[in-house]
Amino acid sequence: xxxxxxxxxxxxxxxDLAIGVIIGGAFGKIVxxxxxxxxxxxxxxxxxxLDFSNKFVLLKSLLGGGDAPATYAKAKExxxxxxxxxxxxxxxxxxxxxxxxxxxxxxMNRLKKQEAAAPAPAPEPTKSEVLLEEIRDLLKK
Length: 141
Fold this sequence. Notes:
With 141 residues, this protein is an all-alpha fold. The protein has one domain (2-117): Large-conductance mechanosensitive channel, MscL, domain 1 (Non-ribosomal Peptide Synthetase Peptidyl Carrier Protein, Chain A). The protein is built from six helices and two strands. The chain has helices at residues 2-9, 12-46, 59-62, 72-78, 84-117, 127-140; strands at residues 57-58, 81-82. A two-stranded antiparallel ribbon has the order 1-2. α2 (12-46) crosses α5 (84-117). The longest helix is centred in the first third of the chain and has 35 residues, at 12-46.
């Protein structure tokens, strides 16, 4: 059983998948930073200082339980909170990642089509074929 597991774990597909997951996690962090540190501040500046990370609805305040605090983190401490600003940010992250993955898959499909369209090189003749050709050439002489 240990031998079978070793064969499975060391197959190329499993290792490729592990590398893909690690790179995907790192790419996700890059996209999070780009959205949180570059795109959302620009959108906030264009909308007059709107900060999406602090857009929320404290459910307690809807039911007459007092005023909502200024930050989303404090609102979460007070109870049930709908953080729609955070949701918008995560949705934008998803759309960026999905678009980049679409471009990667599209590029890979284009490369596969080019490889399939290229003619395959003629296979090298075997030793017996080479010997038969030499015999044929000698018989012609």
